[in-house]
Write a structure and sequence with these properties.
By secondary structure, the chain is mostly helical. It has eight helices and no strands.
C-alpha cells in the first residue's frame, strides 16, 4: 500500500463504510457461530469504524474556513457532548445487563432509541469541526445513514425479543437517533 493511500481521506472513509458492512453481516448472522467469533468480529468492526473517523479530520483536506476560536469552541461542544452521550448510554447498557437485559426506556433512552449512535455522530462531527476538516464534516451524513440503517436492523431484533413492550417504547420515544428530528 503506498504512503499516499494512508493520507487519503476517501481511503479511510471506505474502511469505515466496510466496517459497518461487517457489523451488518455480524448482526444478521446471529447465533450461527460461537460467541467468541461475534465478539472478535464486533471489536474489529468497531475499531475499523471509529479509528478512520478519528484519523480523517487530521488528514490534508480543504478547510471549513472558520476561525481557530470558532472551531475549538463549536467543535469542542459537539465533541464532548457526543462523548458524554456515548458514555451515558454505555452506563445504561451496563445497568440493563446487570438486570437481565431489562429494556431501558428512561434517561438517554427516553429521548432517543439509539443514544449511543447519536453520541457517535456528535463526537465525530465535533472532532471534524475542531480540526477545521471540510471532508470530515461532509462525511457526517454518511456516518448517520450507516448508523441509521444499523438501528433499523437492531430494532427488528428488539421487536422480536421485547414484543409489545418495544412497540410501546417506539410509540413513546418517536426518534431513533437524533432528538426531535430522526
Amino acid at each position: 500500500m503506498s504512503c499516499g493511500m494512508w493520507n487519503n481521506v476517501f481511503f479511510w472513509a471506505v474502511v469505515a463504510c466496510c466496517a459497518i458492512v461487517l457489523e451488518f453481516l455480524v448482526f444478521i448472522s446471529r447465533r450461527k457461530y460461537k460467541r467468541i467469533v461475534y465478539a472478535i468480529t464486533g471489536i474489529v468492526a468497531i475499531l475499523m469504524f471509529e479509528v478512520p473517523r478519528l484519523v480523517i479530520p487530521l488528514l490534508p483536506q480543504p478547510s471549513l474556513k472558520l476561525s481557530e476560536g470558532v472551531v475549538r469552541f463549536l467543535g469542542g461542544i459537539f465533541f464532548w457532548a457526543g462523548v458524554a452521550v456515548v458514555l451515558g448510554a454505555f452506563v445504561q447498557i451496563m445497568q440493563a445487563k446487570r438486570e437481565g437485559w431489562k429494556l431501558r426506556t428512561r434517561g438517554l433512552y427516553g429521548v432517543v432509541r439509539h443514544p449511543m449512535y447519536f453520541g457517535d455522530i456528535l463526537w465525530a462531527f465535533g472532532w471534524s469541526i475542531m480540526h477545521n476538516a471540510f471532508y470530515g464534516v461532509l462525511l457526517t451524513p454518511v456516518w448517520l445513514f450507516l448508523r441509521y440503517t444499523l438501528a433499523v436492523l437492531e430494532e427488528e431484533k428488539l421487536l422480536e425479543k421485547y414484543k409489545a413492550e418495544y412497540e410501546s417504547y417506539i410509540e413513546s420515544v418517536r426518534n431513533r437517533i437524533i432528538p426531535f428530528v430522526l
